[in-house]
UniProtKB/TrEMBL annotation:
It comes from Streptomyces orinoci (Streptoverticillium orinoci). Pfam families: BPD_transp_1. The keyword Transmembrane applies. InterPro entries: Ig-like_fold, MetI-like, MetI-like_sf, UgpAE/MalFG_permease. This is Sugar ABC transporter permease. Belongs to the binding-protein-dependent transport system permease family. It is found in: Cell membrane. Keywords: Cell membrane, Membrane, Transmembrane, Transmembrane helix, Transport. Residues 86-439 form the ABC transmembrane type-1 domain.
């Protein structure tokens, strides 16, 4: 017998199971069941029973006694409010996770290169410490329509007024029956023509007190040979007094008002009133009518109606991203810390620029982490309720409706019908299940060697 034959004959057989392992699980399965029983009981009470009862309750009417079959599900797909909620949920699922993940990725990559990156991450992640209720109240104030209260409109109006000069006296107008008459577009034109040497009087009322705060007293224009002159003033004295249509003590000048000379529908000259309310037009305007254009009296720009019917859903999504972009950033930063730096340096040595390294190396290596973030946020937004309920005002709540909010309104609102509410709950569960299945399959693939 050769040495090789002896070695082959001595080949070891299958490794026996560890001592005691088969005995514990095979001969005494009740031990494993005993340890699992509390968890199974809790799972059944908190998950299995509510799901089963919701399915059962969705087959009955509002009273809970009359069997309706699938009628509640038909109402789910025929009710206009629920269809709006479903459309908004689609917008949420597409927009919120993708934007939050993209911002988290950008923040995680950029903060790696700055010295104060940790402090920046802390500030971005801080909104996660705020409850949905508190965040909703904060953004309800942020989106206030008045620029004096709402931060968003205060910034927006400031930017707008930087590039567009506001009207000097919004809402002002002449007295009824006076020399000035409305001529369309918010402008006012004199009934008769102006002549050189005869100063024109253009009194206005309804000027806001803050618009004439610190204004000088009005002065009657002096006649200038060969030129048309006049005065624009506030024809009102605080506390009463004075003669309407005449300049007197206490009547304030309206400075910065644009005055146009119009002949046959064409503007032939224009001027702006001085601090004392007077203006002077060249001699060619003799015989022309005087017009105060509507730009003098246009309402001030009041910002964007963030919580109006058309913008309420994007505005609430913005509040959600403010909260959850930090969550995405922290997870992606943790994944980025595990990326082999050798691969990044090798790509740079091969001539790749930073954008190519980011797009072709960093992002593919972070794909598993990005998948976790996106799927987690998708499940989260499918059941979004708090922000919508708190931020959206009553006038546009129906436009911002989502399935979780409609579930609450159908079950406990004015038209209480827990059959329909249960049908919405089952439908919402069916929407979440595919995302959960994808997530479970992804985790199983990652566990395989």
């Amino acid at each position: 017998m050769t040495t090789a034959t002896a070695g082959a004959a001595a080949a070891p057989g299958p490794i026996p199971p560890a001592a005691g392992r088969g005995r514990v699980l095979g001969s005494r399965p009740w031990v494993a069941a005993l340890f699992l029983l509390p968890a199974l009981a809790l799972l059944g009470a908190l998950v299995v029973y509510p799901i089963g009862y919701s399915v059962y309750r969705s087959l009955f009417d509002a009273s809970g006694h009359g069997f309706t079959g699938l009628d509640n599900y038909r109402e789910v797909f025929s009710d206009e409010r629920i269809r709006t909620a479903l459309k908004n949920n689609v917008i949420w699922v597409i927009a919120a996770p993708s934007i939050a993940t993209a911002l988290g990725l950008i923040f995680a990559v950029l903060t790696e290169r700055v010295r104060w990156g940790t402090a920046f991450k802390l500030v971005v992640f801080m909104p996660m410490a705020i409850s949905m209720l508190a965040a909703g109240i904060i953004f309800r104030l942020v989106y206030e329509q008045s620029p004096d209260k709402g931060v968003a409109n205060a910034v927006w109006v400031g930017i707008h007024d930087t590039f567009a000069e506001p009207a000097p006296f919004p809402g002002a107008h002449p007295r009824p029956g006076g020399e000035l008459t409305a001529t369309g577009g918010g402008s006012y034109t004199t009934k008769s023509a102006a002549h050189a040497g005869s100063p024109a009087a253009l009194p206005l009322v309804a000027v806001k007190p803050e618009d004439v705060s610190g204004a000088k007293d009005a002065v009657a224009a002096e006649p200038v040979p060969g030129k048309v002159t006049g005065t624009v003033w506030l024809d009102f004295v605080k506390g009463g007094g004075g003669t309407p249509g005449r300049i007197g003590a206490g009547k304030k000048a309206l400075a910065g008002v644009k005055v146009q000379a119009v002949r046959e529908g064409r503007t032939v000259a224009s001027a702006t009133t001085a601090a004392d309310g007077t203006f002077t037009l060249p001699g060619k305007t003799d015989g022309a009518q005087l017009r105060l254009p509507g730009s003098n009296f246009a309402s001030r720009y009041n910002g964007v109606e963030w919580l109006g019917p058309s913008l309420v859903t994007p505005s609430i999504i913005g509040a959600y991203i403010w909260m959850w972009a930090g969550f995405a950033m922290v997870l992606i930063a943790a994944g980025l810390a595990g990326v082999p730096r050798e691969l990044l340096e090798a790509a740079r040595v091969d001539g790749a620029n930073e954008w190519q390294v980011f797009r072709r190396v960093t992002v593919p290596l972070l794909a598993p982490v990005l998948g976790v973030v996106v799927i987690t946020l998708m499940i989260n937004v499918l059941k979004i309720f708090d922000l919508v309920y708190i931020i959206a005002p009553g006038s546009s709540l129906s436009n911002a409706n989502v399935l979780a909010l409609q579930l609450y309104q159908s079950s406990f609102g004015t038209d209480v019908n827990q059959g329909v509410g249960s049908a919405i709950a089952v439908f919402l569960l069916l929407l979440v299940l595919p995302v959960m299945i994808v997530n479970i399959r992804r985790m199983r693939r990652e566990r395989r060697p």
